[in-house]
C-alpha cells in the first residue's frame, strides 16, 4: 500500500530518536549534570537543564565545564540522530562564550550542518530562560566502530 513504507520509515526514525534519548539518560555523567535530551526531528536536538551554584567557579558564574558538556552533547545528538548504526565520537569542538551563565533554566539547541558518511559537522547554541544566547559551539563528529545497538541504554521499541 502507498504510504506504508513512509510510515515504517517514520516509526523507525522515531524509535531511533527515543533510543538516543534513553542512551543520553543512561550516561553516568548525567548524574552530575541533571538534564533531559529531546530529539524532535532528524538533525536537531535540545537539552533542557538548570544551572545552579554547584556548577559555579569562584567568581559566582557557571564554570566552562557545563558550557562545553551541554553544547557538545546537543551538537553530538543532532549529528547522531542521522546515524542509526554507529556511535559518533567528538573529534573537535570550538566554543564561543558570549555571556556569563548564572543560575536558571537553559536549553542547548543542536543542529546538524553537513556531512553524512564518515564525518559530520553540527553546531549548538546555549540559550537562557529569557531567550538570550550565552554561548555557541561547533563540533566535528566521526563514526566509530561502536554499534549503537550494543550500548547499554540504547533501547529501541520491540
TrEMBL record:
SUPFAM superfamilies: Thioesterase/thiol ester dehydrase-isomerase. Its EC number is 3.1.2.-. Keywords: Hydrolase. It is an enzyme of class 3 (hydrolase). GO terms for molecular function: hydrolase activity. InterPro entries: HotDog_dom_sf, PAAI_dom, Thioestr_dom. Residues 60-134 form the Thioesterase domain. It comes from the Bacteria. This is PaaI family thioesterase. It comes from Stakelama saccharophila.
